[in-house]
Amino acid sequence: MSQPTVTKKIKGTAEGVHRDILKRRKPSLKFPLRSLSNVKYDPKAGHFEMRGRTKERTLTVSTVKTFAQTLRMMALSKQLVDTDDIATKREAYYVSKNWDDARFLEQPESDAVMDDVEALFEVNREQIGFVPEEKGGEISGKLVIVDRDSETGKPLRIDCTKFGSGAYSIPISVEHLKFETDADFILVIETAGMFQRLVKHKYWKTANCVLVSMGGVPTRACRRFIRRLADFKKIPVYVFVDGDPYGISNIYRTLKVGSGNAAHLNEFFCVPQARYLGITPQDIVDYKLPTHPLKDVDVKRARDAIKNDPFFQHHKAWVAAMEHLLRMGVRAEQQALAKWGLNYVIDRYLPDKLKNTERFLP
Amino acid sequence: MDDIEVREATMAGSGKRARKAAGVAAAKGGTTRSVGPAAVAPPPGRPRPVAPARSRAGQMGLFEGPADQGRALKAAPAAKPAQDAKAEPAAPAPPGVPGPAPAAGSRRRETAESIGRRQRDISVAEFFQKNRHLLGFDNPAKALLTATKEAVDNSLDACEEAGILPALDIVIEERAEDRFRVAITDNGPGIVRNQIPRVFGKLLYGSKFHTMRQSRGQQGIGISAAGMYSQLTTGQPVKITSRTGAKKPAHYFEIQIDTTRNEPKVLVDREVEWDHEHGTRVEMELAGLYKKGRRSVDDYVVQTALANPHAEVRYRPPKGDEYRRERIASDLPREPLVIKPHPYGVELGVLISLLRETKGRTLATALRSDFARVSDRVALEICKAAGLRPEARPRSLGVQEIEALFRAIPRVKIMAPPTNSIVPIGEDLVLEGLKQTVKADFYTAVARPPAVYRGNPFQIEVGLAYGGDLPAEELVDLWRFANRVPLQYQQSACAIARAALTTDWRHYGLQQSKGALPAAPMVLFVHMVSVWVPFTSESKEAVAAYPEIIRELRLGLQEAGRRLGGFLRHRRRLAEEDKKKSYIKSYIPHIGIALREILGLSKQDEQKVVEVLTETLERSRTL
Question: B571 by DSSP, 3-state: which?
């Protein structure tokens, strides 16, 4: 979406509010409802989609504060777009400190209003001038990324095999990147520790792949990067996370189909071709992995996934796997494979698994 | 529990009753005597009875006997043991029946004869000396309160009897550490000279029996017991100044009690100059403890003033400011009528005594003349239900026959007693009193209509003060009253407290934990008036929980609660209106600023937005 379009949208909404006020009507803003209950899983498109339920915030005495904050956030956003500037979520929170009574007391309040504005205009928050501050993930392996020099605008070729024991950091915005690769697949890894091991032993060379470290739940930039790369070369994406409800339902699910919170953006920020390599509940049995008992939150999360998450409900295999995990009452981390030797994961586990990619969980 | 028995002859109010009925009492004075060998109690070295109210009551029953029951029993030598089934274990056994058996299982150490040689009169005064804790003198703090209370109750009763608007002057001075001088002066009718020694120097001096009438009374002990306590703890005599009229001289007495003979000992008796036209001053010096806060003398005085709006009260505490309350009511309360007992409330022992002393020639006329609401027809019905001849001579009836009569009474339908015999404070005066006593935001007072429990008419009044200077986080302060007397002790045993904490105050917008009083800045005033307040024990500190009483208390509390709820809702609505206004004022300007920034409005346009929007929102009712 181009900048003038965003400005136009903001102005259009503000004009509507202004008109209502002058006509002595109570203005209202319509937001898409941001929650898991308002998404459906579209297996064809491969991501969560909004079901179209909206919440309407009418200006009344009790909503006047949030309403004022939303409008001021829109004004800030317009200013950022107009001046081609950016603000992090934290910075936006501090800007509000200049708004007297309308200021935010804690950052989660300003984040929520920002998410509302983002959803209101159905844009990516970067397009309205707000940028995340979290890191986007790391890359190592058979990939050349073509970026632009920010001063000269000349193409900049970055070879991801040449970072030694380090790695390439995914930037906040990835839309302009181009790729050159002959890798066979992309291996996406949950923990930095496992990523380190695979980089150290140049697993990307052995398996001819690109390694991506998510470091927990993948950021939008990370998801977008993987998506663009996978789409570009039509190569498969395999995901290697901890065998617990968090790894499965928070990390893997978010990577593959997006989040319930910003469903209007999932179309771009998801990787439908991702497949689940491990650790599967069955791996715990097959590889006799050392385990820890499931905590109460794990159990709750797993039950919640089976009961409320449209993605898991759609895939019977996932429901079965979750139930299997609940029956065992245990979880296993990626690093649990070290029980059989530090490099067991490279020598045996991954090669074994990769022989039967069709058996990966969806 | 056998309330009537206990109360009728308790030392409670003996002093004041003596004053009321001075002449009559004089004749009765000599009735204080031993009941019989078996009743000569307590044996020396008997362990001091501890707390349980019931056993205490029993002991009281034991020495209250002399005045009434003893006499009754003597007239019935054939009375079977424990004839009053409901009386406590220690009820006086009839003469001739052996006392408690010697310790079971052991060989006989003494014979009836050897015990008999040691058996002798026991003076109630001596009994008190050993058991003063039974009568409200358990600890120094309570002793100071009880002594004050007895004198004040006496004064108020005396003034009202004489139709004088009371003016009380209460002085408590600390004489030495833990030693106080209590002086109470009233403007009452005064006491005739030759009665003064007995009123103040003799316990169980006279008492009334059949008549039932609303009075303060029943405070645990007469003024003479307070005097005895003072004598016991400081060795000082009670000092009385009294004058019966402007043309009469004032008399000054110093009196001690001969505790073995229960007779007054006059140390000083002289005429003095006194600037009061009529009235009485009682001075005592006693071991005590003065403290502030709940159950203090200070609280007692304030609450007494509240329950007696027709009294002028002046109080000089040992520490702190003088308290003064002018009268709120310019008229005396209507004089409470004396009523006859209602058959439903009568106890077996009382019934026996009644029939012994009746002037009625036949059973039917005795019933009709000595009880309320017993017509000829009702009297015949009772006799029929008891299987007795209506024309039987009451005095000739045996205890078994009287018991049959007693059991027959509940089976006969009898009209409720008249309720005009009780005199409440009145909603207006409760309200006015609360306003003067407590600084609050909301006041209300509820007087329930009179009701009846066990044949006794009673009435409940509830007052409530909320907010203001009262402490917000604490449990509400519950002020209990019976016949205009504040009850300071044994709250948890009291029907008033039970009714208050089983009322669901959350309905009315207060916070309340289960099984507790609500937590709120609130004073609850609850008053029960009755010809006969059923206390749980002779210490007269808690009202017994008869279902009818609980019910009336609840209804009164609920009505007061509803009114409070209405007030709180109204106040909350006002607070919300305020909040709404400040909300609008704080946030609407930001909508103006945002719209100006986005749309590039002029300052005037921005101002217009703020004005119009403010109007729109202020008009809207919903939040």
Answer: helix
- Give the residue among B540, B539, B89, B76 at the shortest CA–CA distance from B351: B76
- Averaging pLDDT over each range in A74-78, A268-272, B34-38, B180-184, which range is the top one? B180-184
Higher pLDDT, A59 or B80: A59
Percent of chain B beyond pLDDT 70?
77
Tokens at A148, concatenated: 């632009």
Q: Which residues of B touch A62 (CB under 8 A)?
A: 583, 623
The active-site residue, picked from A94, A168, A238, A252, is: A94
The CATH number for B359-408, chosen from 3.40.50.410, 1.10.245.10, 1.10.8.50, 3.90.800.10, is: 1.10.8.50
Quick one: fold of A138-359? Dna Topoisomerase Vi A Subunit; Chain: A, domain 2 (3.40.1360)
Does the global pTM surpass 0.80?
A: no
**Contact (CB<8Å) B594/A72:** yes
Residue A94 is among the residues annotated as catalytic for this protein? yes
| Residue A67 at interface with chain B, using a CB cutoff of 8 Å | yes
CA dist., res. A114 & res. B90, Å (int): 83
| B539 three-class SS | coil
Name which of B66, B517, B501, B514 is nearest B262 in CA terms: B66
- CATH number belonging to domain B133-325: 3.30.565.10
Q: Domain map of chain B by residue range?
A: 3-100, 133-325, 359-408, 417-623
pLDDT of amino acid B203: 62
What is the nearest CA distance from A1 to chain B, expressed in angstroms?
19
pLDDT tens by residue, A101-158: 889 999 889 988 988 888 888 887 777 888 777 667 899 999 999 998 878 889 999 9
Q: Which amino acid is at B335?
A: E
Task: Using the predicted structure, report yes or no on whether residue B81 has a pLDDT greater than 80.
Answer: no
Give yes or no for a cis peptide into B221 (omega within 30° of 0). Answer: no
Here the tokens at position B317 are 């505490």
The domain spans of chain A are 3-131, 138-359
How far is C-alpha A115 from the chain's CA centre?
Answer: 14
Nearest CA in chain A to B589: A68
Q: Who among A26, A61, A75 is closest to B584 (CB)?
A: A61
B599 touches chain A (CB under 8 A): yes
**What was the ipTM of the complex prediction?**
0.72
Most A CBs within 10 Å, among B595, B606, B612, to test the A interface = B595
pLDDT in tens, A208-223: 999 999 988 898 889 9
Closest CA to B84 of B76, B75, B92: B92
User: Domain A3-131 belongs to what topology?
Assistant: Arc Repressor Mutant, subunit A (1.10.10)
Residue of chain B with shortest Cα separation from A20: B613
Which tens digit of pLDDT belongs to each residue from B60-73? 333 333 333 333 33
Tell me if A72 and B613 make a contact (CB, 8 A cut-off). no
For residues A79 and B597, the answer to whether their CB atoms sit within 8 Å is: yes
Q: Residues B167-209: pLDDT tens digits?
A: 999 999 999 989 999 999 999 999 889 888 887 776 655 433 4
CATH match of B417-623 with 3.30.230.10: yes
Tell me how many residue pairs between chain A and chain B have CB atoms under 8 A apart.
89
CA separation, residue A224 to residues A157, A184, A232, A266, B304 (Å): 20, 19, 12, 10, 82
